[in-house]
Amino acid sequence: MSTLIVPSRYCGPPRSGNGGWTAGELAAHVEHGCPTDRADAWPPVRVRLRQPPPLDVTMTVTDVQGTTTLLHDGAVVAEAVPSVDELLPVAPVGQDAAHAAEATYAGAAQHPFPTCFACGPEREEGDGLRIFPGEVDPVEGRRRVAATWTPHPSLSEDWHVYGQAGRHVALPVTWAALDCVGGWAEDLLGRPMVLGQMTARVDALPEVGETHVVVGEHRGSEGRKTFTASTLYAPGGAVVALAEHVWVAVDPERFG
């Protein structure tokens, strides 16, 4: 048994945690045995969010029969399990095209949660991630969005990578970078949503100061649910991490 706190810096809606950051922090507690010989890589984990993660409170993390559970006052906040799903990457977008797309970011002037750690326009440089995805060319009829992201030094965490010291962002920040770009592949203004489930694989931790490209793709809708995917690319075009999401349509005033 261990504990987990979502600091208010990592909010999504104003009163609850960013879904990607919270999911990534819980994913770090999942026991895989010895899945990889790389110090900076994590195999797929699926996290299901059962209720909005509270901010700045101590929650309990337990592991029972392979399910890692986040609890607050005895209620289940989220559950995480190793995943065997094959995650399919979103087709890459060039850095110039991704940067140009940011000018069309739908959340710039109007946003359901403008202080969101990942995509909130009211977050200052060095505080939030400020990932502002705009629409790019679709692939096979699927709507796509893209943005650039250069991790700020305030996000750095010292990791020993291949025997060399490096400055990379932490695992939950990597998950957060994969989060909202998926949501913006849907019409988040016309259909406000929160993250219900996220499955992610991290092949490497993003390096501070390097300009990455993050791409999101709409993959379907069913009732209140929307299905999306996202991929984070390194400057040279290698996949850094990828994710698939299930979003649930909500009334944003309930989370404001």
From TrEMBL:
InterPro entries: HotDog_dom_sf. This is Thioesterase family protein. It comes from Nocardioides malaquae.
